[in-house]
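Example record

One chain of 959 residues, shown exactly as stored in the release files.
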Amino acid sequence: MSDTTSVYQAYQGNTYLFGGNAPYVEEMYENYLVNPGSVPETWREYFDALQHVPAVDGSNAKDVPHLPVVNAFAERAKQGGTKVVGATGADSEMGRKRTAVQQLISAYRNVGQRWADLDPLKRTERPEIPELEASFYGFSDADQETVFNTSNTFFGKEAMPLRELINALRETYCGSIGVEYMYATDQNQKRWWQEKLETIRSKPSFGPDKKKHILDRLTAAEGLERFLHTKYVGQKRFSLEGGESFIAAMDELIQAAGTKGVQEIVIGMAHRGRLNVLVNTLGKMPKDLFAEFDHTAPEDLPAGDVKYHQGFSSDVSTPGGPVHLSLAFNPSHLEIVNPVVEGSVRARMDRRADPHGKQVLPVLVHGDAAFAGQGVIQETLALAQTRGYSTGGTVHIVINNQIGFTTSDPRDSRSTLYCTDVVKMIESPVLHVNGDDPEAVVFATQLALEFRMEFQKDVVVDIICFRKLGHNEQDTPALTQPLMYKKIGAHPGTRKLYADKLATQGLGETLGDDMSKAYRAAMDAGKHTVDPVLTNFKSKYAVDWSPFLGKKWTDAGDTAIPLAEWKRLSEKITTIPEGVTPHQLVKKVYDDRAAMGRGDIPVDWGMGEHMAFASLVASGFPVRLSGEDCGRGTFTHRHSVIHDQKREKWDTGTYVPLQNVSENQAPFVVIDSILSEEAVLGFEYGYASNDPNTLVIWEAQFGDFANGAQVVIDQFIASGEVKWGRVNGITLMLPHGYEGQGPEHSSARLERFMQLSADANMQVVQPTTASQIFHVLRRQMVRHLRKPLIIMTPKSLLRNKDATSPLSEFTKGSFQTVIPEQNEAIEKKAEKVKRVIACSGKVYYDLVKKREEKEADDVVILRVEQLYPFPHKAFAAELKKYPNATDIVWCQDEPQNQGAWFFVQHYIHENMLEGQKLGYSGRAASASPAVGYSHLHQEQQKALVDGAFAKLKGFVLTK
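Predicted structure tokens for this chain:
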């Protein structure tokens, strides 16, 4: 017996809805429809639920008893009232053929692209697809002139001979463009594509001027590559040769978008063809590019980056007015720029109050291997139709050169038919197009833009082309692709093919050569190749970054708020409208917060956070908070969204107090994100990169999961400023704390952020009180310093009464980078202090408790709340208070090879007095962040706290 059979039999024996029970269930359902009280309660509940399922016609009509209807039909049959009239043989056969014609039409719409002429290299034969053959449906040559109804097509005729219909279908779906769209569930979208394609049979009709312009763009694309190839022999540039039609597509996209009212386009792409886009699309001066090759360009950044990672922006003229173009900076990590671009676009949309992306367009350019292989593609696509991350649809262009570095064998390159198949998850249409047919490429781009503007959905143009040279200009691709590169070597080039085509159409025998000579002359002169680039235009939506440049982390910021403002705001954010019924647990939270606002009880972490947000939006600073479960908070401390317990519809019944602070407040947006780290963090980084006036926060569900976005942290957050000069004020909130929850729920990997810290590139803090989180969040906006803020947020401290703060700490003071000794008795006897324990985070409260148990009044405990940039001045000032202390101990929860120890020891040593000794107390070095055994965790925790008060041992550093 097979496993499948045994599983099926087990299912038979266990499900009450199995077919063998059908008569019993049907009888009981009949009884229920007549009298619901006549069936057992469990069945009644089940049948009640069925009544909420829409009827087959989509209505909400309730079901009625079936038996009377069945009996009526049976009685009518007995009386001879129902007769079936059979069709004649001829009619039956014609009916079958009519149905077959509809099946044939559907087949071409669904899989016609499999026969499309898409590969410029023509490396494979046309596949066998029986359903595209008339014979598959029983048609013969004798049927070719038979006329069939074609009213459900857009070929312009109500009826067509079969031969003509097949020709029309093949011209439409099997030419230089192959379109996939039939998997869409929206019938309007499918009919839209059918009308656009079938009306003109996928053949654009361009006039002479348009064709000349397309040739001009091909000439520019090829001309730049050949110029660089001869002038800078062997230097890496990741040539576009073989894919020149892409530049014609970009030109069309920009000009057509401007006509449709788009005012900004943000482009993300990897390095293939990037230099070509910079010069021939965005209008970067060729002489400036040449200076980068010659190493004579200004080098005014601490690190800088290679030329094919550089971003650029410009303003170009279109028939609809000026369009601002931005090419995002991008590292070599293919596709990671995608969510960054989407976030940047969303920020621009929000600034313009443009919720549907009518004025801002994201354009993402991909390689075929990366599009199929990189997981960030899927994560970014998953954001496309969500409320917090939608950008009104993205135009994707794939430069499909049919090879990834050295991999081109389809048995190795992917597990899908097309490199674009991943987009079917969000039902995005795909236009596969032959790169050797530039007019088809331009037409496909037009259609893609029209679709995006009409339906606000992603769309893909897959330009199938080739890569003339190797992965870079130092490669020899024939080593691994001898057959492919024989064909490429014999290919004359897309520009030459198109120039010859235009010559045969009477547009000039020397047109192609004349354009090539003119472009070469422009290159030699280092002049613009995009006309016109607007040099004096400035949009009213442009952001002025100058106030945020050249600032220092030591700059002061007034983060306290007046008592009257505190009370006004606290009342606003703790008042729940009468029509909203919160859960009892949430009501208790808000009642407590109201008491905190009045000063009746100390302020906890959740209230401190909320008051920081409230005071910022009231002052005109928008707040955008996103992450998994961040509306409620992973540890149920936030409750920024109140869910009405009496709501009757799934999409209504929420109330956000922070959106009701004042009449003219700035927006407060809180988003429960999809289950993604990499794409969501990349999106928020992109948002913050375009809006310095919004507090943009990404909160990890647990800090441990941040390493799922490590590429974003490494390539953008930590190094973006020193590589590209891009300042960014994004805030990361990473729950971190050793409380026995095991290896993946304890550590936000503080050590990794410390390792990445240099050049004053970001701020790493670990606040331990409610007032500290209040002040550090406000500081991030009140000061003009825009550096990433990494906050190790607590878990158990969220409800620890020792971590609460009195109201006075919010109306006075500021964020303390180092919190001094809090025991006044010990502070007053500073001369008796023999040991200073320095720590950061939750372990402070364990140390205080141990000191009380030991009555060790000669031990001071300092909290380092900001670990980077290290607060040397504040820390040194605290150490100087205790000149007789001989020992300094750094105590941490994390293992010795993790946490802050290896990074702060030299900072501490620098501020120690002569003769003082520095020791360590914490967990031993470990390959895992934390243990999974509860008893072992407790033992380790006890040992590290005890060790902080014991004799120094192990590594000891003496000043």
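Notes: The radius of gyration is 34 Å.
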